[in-house]
Design a protein that fits this description.
Elements lengths: L12 H17 L4 H28 L1 E5 L5 E6 L4
Antiparallel strand pairs: 1-2
Helix pairs in contact: 1-2
């Protein structure tokens, strides 16, 4: 499947999510033939995995700046996203 959907890796989060939403809409309408439904589902899975990966990477990059008693930045630490 990675070879079939190699283009997914180059998509931005916004484009991948928009395409995933279109796929879900088409599948929910039920007007797609079985073989096309399977292909759409597989592409949707690839898009979902790509979006999840991009979100995880973004979460890891978010940091908060720590300030010392004098109010000056002293460094950074991971942001508590919970």
């Amino acid at each position: 499947m990675a070879e079939t959907f190699a283009d997914v890796a180059g998509l931005s989060f916004e484009k991948a999510l928009a395409e995933l939403e279109q796929i879900v809409d088409r599948l929910e309408k039920g007007t797609v033939a079985l073989e096309e439904s399977i292909a759409l589902y597989e592409r949707g899975e690839a898009l979902k995995a790509h979006c999840e990966s991009l979100l995880k990477t973004a979460e890891q990059r978010i940091e908060k700046i720590t300030l010392g008693p004098d109010g000056k930045p002293t460094g950074t630490e991971p942001l508590d996203v919970a």
